Amino acid sequence: MNVGETPEQVICLWRGETLSDVLLHVGDKDTHNKHTGNNYYQLRPDWSETLPLLSGNICHYMVTGKKHRIRVFWNRLLLRTILKSVKAKSAGTKGNSRLEFARAVREYKIILYRHVKDFVLIGLGVFSAAFGLKGFLQTNRFIDGGATGISLLVSAVTAIPLYALIILINIPFILLGSKIVGKAFAVKTALAILTLALVVAMVPFPNVTNDNLLVALFGGFFLGAGIGLSIRGGAVLDGTEILAIFMSRKFSTTIGDIIIVINIFIFAAAAYFLSVEIALYSMVTYLAASKTLDFVVEGIEEYTGVTIISMRSEEIRQMIIGTLGRGVTLYSGKRGFGKQGESRNTDIVYTVITRLELNHLKTELEKIDPNAFIVMSPVKETKGGMIKKRRLLH
User: Fold this and answer.
1) What is the structure's pLDDT at 84?
2) Other CB atoms within 10 A of residue 268 CB
3) What is the pLDDT of residue 161?
4) pLDDT of residue 311
5) What is the pLDDT of residue 341?
6) What's the confidence (pLDDT) of residue 295?
7) Model pTM greater than 0.70?
8) How far apart are CA 213 and CA 194, in angstroms?
9) pLDDT score, position 288
10) CA-to-CA dists, residue 279 to 135, 138, 282, 323, angstroms
11) What is the per-residue pLDDT for 391?
12) Per-residue confidence (pLDDT) for residue 65, from 0 to 100
């Protein structure tokens, strides 16, 4: 392992450890490259089992050349973050620091994979929705339901650009989402909506067809696919779904009922300001979009009941309560024959969450127990403990 002449104390260098505690010196600058002035080290055997978990050998430091400075900065930043996280988790405990470090590395890999996947899905969703809006709906004065439909309607009867309306109309829903779903969700949604507005404003799309039926069907298809991909990435492109979740909890009604009521007013306004024919075709657009959305998110309903069977049920219970702010029900059960051998007693965890939180739950479960057995089922309606989400403590 190649380390600079003045070794950086990053990796090593937790709980009072020094560079010599982690690295073994196997040479010096007199016996190696005199031009760069490098000392040569190799990893101590007991640490060599832990650190390779960092992809790309993140511990490989070369601090002497300008071309390596960006890589070194990134490595230091990531290592400091991981070590800080592990220190916080291990405070007041006597755990194995190397084991904790390996777990922290694994968690960061899961989080990194999740974020990359989410932003890819959101990016694809944004371009699909923009194509549906500009390639089909806007040029033919068709609308959709929700905040997108309001934006299209206002743009059709005024001189206000569509991209500006997409941002302005969704701002209240983003602020509401930060309170009822979470700040991370609100940030993702804000970035997704802002990106959609930029794509609509700057990327040219051709007018694919002027046939009303094709416009209604395929405009709804691409728009619904875009919204569905964004939901799978942990964000939404249409803020009315957030409003529907809020109102369903406040008035104990279903999310679907709230969305239908909102869209009735939107299509009635379209019939008045545009024409009855356009309003009827717009309903077809909405149906195509909603069916496509359901297909893209694999038929997930508004609420999803999740049953989790794991030998680490207590950690999962604490995660759902503390991280997601959701209620949990525990069943006393007995495992049959499986990977752990013959039957044994175990607690079965059951919780109900919205589809906007499903992605977050899967990520947290992957960090705690990748082998957990999970069963998900659609829940049409809930009343009681699920309706109001417990406020998280920060």
Assistant:
1) 61
2) 11
3) 93
4) 86
5) 56
6) 81
7) no
8) 30
9) 92
10) 19, 14, 5, 43
11) 46
12) 43
Instruction: Show Cβ contacts of residue 357 under 8 Å, excluding neighbours closer than 6 positions.
Output: 181, 324, 326
How crowded is residue 44: how many other Cβ atoms within 10 Å of its Cβ?
Answer: 14
Q: Do the Cβ atoms of 205 and 130 come closer than 8 Å? A: yes
Nearest-angstrom CA–CA distance, 216 and 144: 9
Token look-up 């416009």 returns 215
- Secondary structure string (H, E, C) spanning the chain: CEECCCCCCCCCCCCCCCHHHHEEECCCCCCCCCCCCCEEEEECHHHHCCHHHCCCCCCCCCCCCHHHHHHHHHHHHHHHHHHHHHHHHHCCCCCCHHHHHHHHHHHHHHHHHHHHHHHHHHHHHHHHHHHHHHHHHHHHCCCCCHHHHHHHHHHHHCCCCHHHHHHHHHHHHHHHHHHHCCHHHHHHHHHHHHHHHHHHHHCCCCCCCCCHHHHHHHHHHHHHHHHHHHHHCCCCCCCHHHHHHHHHHHHCCCHHHHHHHHHHHHHHHHHHHCCHHHHHHHHHHHHHHHHHHHHHCCCCCCEEEEEEECCCHHHHHHHHHHHHCCCCEEEEEEECCECCECCEEEEEEEEEEECCCHHHHHHHHHHHCCCCEEEEEEECCCCCCCCCCCCCCC
Give pLDDT, residue 231. 87
d(CA 382, CA 371): 29
Other beta carbons within 10 Å of 351: 21
- Which stretches of the chain drop beneath a pLDDT of 70? 1-102, 298-302, 336-343, 380-394
Over the stretch 258-272, which tens digit does the pLDDT of each residue have? 888 888 999 999 999
- The whole-number pLDDT of residue 329 equals 87
Return the axis-axis angle of helices 276-296 and 212-232, rounded to nearest 10°.
Answer: 40
First to last CA, the chain: 41
Structure confidence by residue, pLDDT tens digits, 231-265: 888 889 988 888 887 887 777 777 777 888 888 99
Distance of alpha carbon 52 from alpha carbon 58, whole angstroms: 8
Can you tell me which residue has the tokens 């743009």? 155
pLDDT at 240: 85
What is the predicted pLDDT for the residue at 276?
93
Copy the structure tokens of residue 271.
Answer: 């019939």
How many Å apart are CA 203 and CA 309, to the nearest integer?
A: 47
All domains in the chain, ordered by first residue: 2-90 (no CATH), 110-296 (no CATH), 303-379 (3.30.70.120)
Alpha carbons 135 and 137: distance in angstroms, whole number: 7
